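Backbones bend. Shown next:

***
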Amino acid sequence: MEEIKIVVADESHEKYVDSILQTISDAASVRGTGIARRTHDYLLSKILQAKAVIALAGDRFAGFSYIETWENKKYVTTSGLIVHPDFRGQGIAKRIKDLTFSLARTRWPNAKIFSLTSGAAVMTMNTQLGYKPVTFAELTDDDAFWDGCNGCKNVDILRRTDRHYCICTAMLFDPEEHLPAKIPEDVLRRIERLEKAPLPPGGGLKRKPLYESADGAVYGLLKEFASENRKNPTQAESILWNLLKEKRLGASFRRQHIIGQFIADFCCLSHKLIIEIDGKYHSLPEQQIKDEDRTKWLNEHGLKVVRFTNEEIIGNTENVINKIKEELWSNK
């Protein structure tokens, strides 16, 4: 049996969008159920915003689902769950559901997650995750959500009942449940450039040693992400780590070190120096604002931040090392 990979979708997966839409439409026709119709651009926007999960068997599309937010992220839905007929019966839907659910819980931990479905399999998975059946009155009042039902053949029922009920069953999740799947660090980095994360509280961190300064509320999750990122470094990270480890510059560095609610690419505690490696998305205006806020918070806690691009590290390594040496000894 071919290995099925379940990942958070990115721009490289746009080529599957039309197949996803056709598979969703075909499944609705076979079941004789309604469907909220979506366009290519709509699904692509979810992919680009790191709000979609895709299952792949090699280069073949195997399954998909996406996330929507409502009422200023007070409510979240995981929608459009579909598995291609060639891959059904392999537990793919459950794996997609778990990752989509975890992605939603990670990004919007205080949001109510709800589902509106007519599928028995989805209801079963929702129940396993902690969803409970509710009335439509307990769902979002956002008209944009309900407008999505206009493409469904049963929308007349919804309209005649003034949105009180329809063929679908409404289910709601208690946000205090545990996460069933892990969100890798590279996905979190994508998310960071899409929306500004709240700054971590600074209370008490100055009174603690730096190695104890991780935010206890999220330390367990960040620890898993940091561990995963150490196992799968980028080319630039590998190059720089080989030059920093074992005190090769005369100082001890840690990689993927947790401070507050952040994970630093490289950190020298003795010299209070952090080195960050920036991909191309760091040139985006919104990411530059986030980077400035992050640097400000770290500066306020006695840490200096030095940034290098992937291109600098790969193509001009000697200059990068000389710069780090300067910062190390001027910072001491």
Summary: Residues 53 and 100 are 6 Å apart (CA to CA). DSSP finds twelve helices and eleven strands in the chain. Residues 5-173 form a domain with the Aminopeptidase fold (CATH 3.40.630.30). Confidence is low (pLDDT under 50) at residues 196-212.
